[in-house]
Amino acid sequence: MSFSDLFDSEFKQRNKGHFSAIVRVALADGIVHPEEKKFLDKLAARLEISETEYEEILNDPLKYPINPPYLHVQRLERLYDLTRMVHVDHHLEDQQEVMLRKLGIALGFTPSNVNYIIAKALSLVDKKVDGDTFVYEMQHMHK
């Protein structure tokens, strides 16, 4: 196995773990709502999750380990990606903020400040800032 194959394999496993964690959030209330399903479909395509893997994860989201971002910057980077996915075509319509709050809590942001964080994230993505600007602004939003 070449080094690039090892990297690709590890990258795909990490994507499956991320997707599995998001499926768990969507299933927190016991069902996947149609808006959430549309979002999961789009996310699976972006994370290169095959149809078989998608069904497997939906049936048993606990099968893959969660790889939570350890560093605050990594959480912000993941929040940036998720916010852009949700916001780009308003896939979740009125539910976008609700879903992003759930994802924000799953990423490790506290319930006491997740509303403020999501509002700021949506505002920045609406302004079409790049990833570095997003992280910088999020890190300095209290100053």
UniProtKB/TrEMBL annotation:
Gene3D superfamilies named in the record: TerB-like
Pfam families membership: TerB (PF05099)
Domain Co-chaperone DjlA N-terminal, residue spans: 20-57
Residues of the signal peptide: none
Top-level taxon of origin: Bacteria
UniProt name for this protein: Tellurite resistance protein TerB
